Amino acid sequence: QVQLVESGGGLVQSGGSLRLSCVASRSIFRINTMGWYRQAPGKQRELVATLTSGGNTNYADSVKGRFTISRDNAQNTVALQMNSLKPEDTAVYYCNARTITITSWGQGTQVTVSS
Prior knowledge:
The protein is mainly β. About 0% of the residues lie in helices and about 55% in strands. It contains no helices and 11 strands. The strands form 2 sheets. Strands 2, 4, 5, 6, 9, 10 and 11 form a 7-stranded mixed beta sheet that branches. Strands 1-3-8-7 form a 4-stranded antiparallel beta sheet, with no helix packed on it.
């Protein structure tokens, strides 16, 4: 297993930016896919962005062109740069690590975008 700890959430006005960071308890070099998911009140958890160890990215249509996912294997971190934030981006954001045998989640960090 790998423990994940997110940080960087907060309150921001519409149009603003935030950068989320996720630190893993061990090397992420061999973790196939690192990603970010979010869950808004009353809604199911949904994919935001993923990044494979080979560098392939996948973004939800709603965030394409505004969010960028990156990973630093040397620092065991994955980040989510969020620009041009909208009120509908308000949610708890979760870091995710996935291999063939394990799936780990962080505890989540709240992002609130005011209009």
